[in-house]
Amino acid sequence: MNSHDNSYHPYLIPFGPSLSINQTYSTSPNLYMGNQPPSFIKLTPKKTLRTRSLWKPIYDPYYNFLGPVKRSRSTRCPRRHAQMMSHHKASVNPTYFRNGEEPAPRFRMPDQGMLPESAYQMIHDEMALDGKPKHNLATFVTTWMESSADRLYAEAFNKNLIDKCEYQQTTSIEKRCIRMLADLWHAPYPHKTVGVSTTGSSEACMLGGLALKRRWQKARKKQGKPIDRPNIVFSSAVQIVWEKFANYWDVEPRYVNIAPNRLWMDPEGVLAVVDENTIGVIPMLGVTYTGIYEPVAVIAKALDELQSRTGLDIPIHVDAASGGFIAPFLQPDLVWDFQLSRVKSINVSGHKYGLVYPGIGWIIWREAEDLPEDLIFHVSYLGGNIPTFALSFSRPSAQVLLQYYNFIRLGRSGYYEVQRVSQSVAHFLSNEIQTIEPFDVLTNGSDIPVLTWRLKEGFTSNWDLMGNLKIVFYS
Ligand SMILES: Cc1ncc(COP(=O)(O)O)c(C=O)c1O
C-alpha cells in the first residue's frame, strides 16, 4: 500500500474532551493535501500544540509517517494569499479548517483539495440553511421512506441503470415494474406492451409527446400530406413540461382555457381547437394547481365522435403524474386509462404518489406499436443489444429498485391505505379551512389528495394568500 492509499482510510475520530475542533481533528496525510503538520505546528499556539501532541498518537494512525512539508500555495505566494483574503466574502472558510487548508473559493475550483471531513462538514453545514424536506409540500415529491428502503438505496446508488448487461437483475426488476404498471392501468397486453422508467414525469411526457409526433408524421407521410405544422392540445392550466415540449420540439401549443367556474379542459374546448395537424390531446389526471382530474373519458368520447364524423383519429396521452398512483386505489371505478382505446400512453411520477425518493417517473404505451420503432436506439457497446428510448443515457438505478420495493412491500392494499390516509388529511384540512372566514376552499382532495383555497373576493386588499403584504399608500 503506498501512502496515497492512506487517504481512503475512514477517519472516524472522536473529539477528545475539552478540545476544540481545530485543535484536535486529525491531520493525517491525504492524497490531495500533502503533509501539513509542521506548518501547523509553527502557527499553532503552545497550548494547542501541547493538547494536540497529547492526542495525536491516539488519533492519527500516520503520526510517525509524516513526510516533508509541502506548503500551501497561499502561504508560498503572499500576493495570492492577500487576494484570497480580500475575496473572503466569495469563499467558504469555516473555522474548523485544518491549518494549511485553503478557503474554498465559491465560484472557482480551489487549487488544492482538502480533507474529506472538511469537505463534508462544509457542505453539511451549508445544507442546514436549506428548507427541511419533510416540511416541503410544494411539489408532491416523496421526502421520506422507511429505513429498509434507505438501506436498499445505499446498496444500489452506484449502479448505472443504462448498463443493462452488467446489472441484469436491476433490468429485470425495471421490466417487472413496467408490467405491473401496464396491468394496473388495464393495458390490453401488459406482458407484451412497452414502457420505460425515466427521471420523472417531465422526461416521460417528452417521450410521450415525441411518440405522438412521430406517429402523426408517419400517418401524414403515408397520406402524402405536409408535416410542417403539428399542434398539441392541453388546458391553459397545464404543467410547464408540456409548454417545454411544444417549444423544444417545434409543436404549436393549443390551449383550452379554463374558467373560474370550470377549472378543467372540457370536450367542447378540445373540439374547438383540434384539426388534422393535432398530434394528440393531453388531459391531466391531477391538474398541478388544483389536483382536479380532467375528464379523460368524456374527452375520449368526444374524439371518438369526431372520428366517426370526420375520420380524424386523434390520440390521447394522459399526464397522470400524480393521479396514476391515486386513481387505481382511491377511485378504482373511474375510467381514465387504457380501458379507453384512444388512450395510447400514460405517464406517472414514481417520486410523487409512487412514494419513491426524487428521480423516477414512468411511461407506458398501450400496445407496443404505439411507440414508433424508429424512436428506439439499439446500443451495442455495453455488451449485448440494449434498446433504449430516453432523453438521457446514464441514470441512477436505485429509484427503480425502490419503486419495486414499494410495489412488493405495500401491495395494492398498502398503496390504498397510504393514499386513503393522505386523502383524509386533505378532507380534514379543507373542512377546517372552510370555516375560516376569509377563505374559500376550491378543491378538497377528492381527486388527488391536494386541497386548494382562495381568499374570498374583496375580503382584504392588504394581503395575498402567500402572506405578501400589498403596499398601501395613504395620502
Ligand atoms: C401534471 C404534471 N405533469 C408533469 C409534472 C412534472 O413532474 P416531474 O416533477 O416528475 O418531472 C408535474 C409535476 O408537478 C405535474 O403535476
UniProtKB/TrEMBL annotation:
InterPro entries noted in UniProt: Glutamate_decarboxylase, PyrdxlP-dep_de-COase, PyrdxlP-dep_Trfase, PyrdxlP-dep_Trfase_major
EC annotation from Swiss-Prot or TrEMBL: 4.1.1.15
Sequence positions bearing N6-(pyridoxal phosphate)lysine: 352
GO molecular function: aromatic-L-amino-acid decarboxylase activity; glutamate decarboxylase activity; pyridoxal phosphate binding
Reaction equations catalysed: L-glutamate + H(+) = 4-aminobutanoate + CO2
EC top class, as a word: lyase
Keyword flag Lyase: yes
GO annotation terms (biological process): L-glutamate catabolic process
Matches recorded under SUPFAM superfamilies: PLP-dependent transferases
Keyword annotations of the record: Decarboxylase, Lyase, Pyridoxal phosphate
One CC-aspect GO term: cytosol
Cofactor: pyridoxal 5'-phosphate
Pfam families from the UniProt entry: Pyridoxal_deC
Keyword Lyase: yes
Similarity field: Belongs to the group II decarboxylase family.
Cross-referenced PANTHER family: GLUTAMATE DECARBOXYLASE
Protein name per UniProt: Glutamate decarboxylase
Species in which this protein is naturally found: Neobacillus bataviensis LMG 21833
